[in-house]
Write a structure and sequence with these properties.
By secondary structure, the protein is an all-alpha fold. The protein has a domain of 41 residues. Helix content is 22%, strand content 0%.
Length: 88
């Protein structure tokens, strides 16, 4: 039988990894796989500062587009269309 658990921890500057396992984990042979997490860009629902948003790769995404005309009007139009979509 294989049992998989997921634990989160931080790797220290000395590259030492310490984890504490739950008491229900049996002793004996085990395989440890380390997955290095990447930082996710700040998303609108996560909050963040204006500096966080300005650092986002999505900031000024439309700034150089010439086919949109007024980008603020275009964004308003997209929001209005999204609000009218059927959520079913």
């Amino acid at each position: 039988m294989v049992k998989t658990i997921t634990l989160q921890t931080d790797i220290s500057p000395h590259r030492v990894l310490q984890i504490s396992l739950p008491k229900d984990i049996p002793t004996g042979p085990a395989e440890v796989v380390v997955v290095i997490a990447t930082r996710q860009p700040v998303q609108a629902n996560q909050g963040g500062t204006a500096a966080d948003m300005a650092a986002s790769p999505l900031f000024s995404l439309w700034s150089e587009r010439t086919d949109l005309g007024d980008s603020q009007s275009y964004a308003r139009k997209l929001r209005a269309q999204a609000e009218r979509r059927d959520n079913a």
